Amino acid sequence: MFHSLYIKRIEKETTESVSVEFDVPEKLLGEFSFEAGQFLTLKKELNNQEICRSYSLCSTPVSGKFKVAIKQIPLGKFSTFANNQLKVGDYIDVGRPAGNFFFKPQPKNSKSYTLIAAGSGITPILSILKTILVEEPNSQVTLFYGNKSPKLTMFKKEIEHLKKEYSK
């Protein structure tokens, strides 16, 4: 089931990617409850063709935000539209959170986690990373994150900020 959601914020993450934050009305918050690592499916009619694409949530469940990142793919119809035409104030059809790749924090845990991501694969990992840092304060996490170049590193500043804030 899809719901038409208002686009609250768009940020240019790199020259090839944007993050898109949706405003989920209070009456839909129960339906949009998610676990770190899950994804949203976005639907849009482009050139008389319905296109659905799934993007991992990069926000955390406790943040109250519903945010995905979209990397522009060469000849990608939806990703090109999202990076070049989508704007704050638009509405887009969004499916409820889904997916079996997720993390459920255990606040009493004292574990050591290793997370590995490359390129835009950081999106579900970022949600998981932030969830561990906030909700498992006695756990440690190491992130290995590869990219083509520093300028194409999605969420570079946010990750650097997390490193400073949570390094022991």
Tell me roughly what share of residues is in helical segments.
10-25%
Classify the beta-strand content into a percent band: 35-45%
Q: What class do helices, strands and sheet pairing give?
A: alpha+beta
**Order of adjacent strands in the largest pleated sheet:** 4-3-6-1-2-5
Based on CA atoms alone, the radius of gyration comes out at: 16 Å
- The global form is globular
- Low-confidence spans: pLDDT under 50, at least 5 residues? none
Terminal-residue CA separation:
44 Å
Number of strands: 8
User: What average pLDDT do the residues reach?
Assistant: 96
Describe the biggest sheet?
Answer: 6 strands, antiparallel
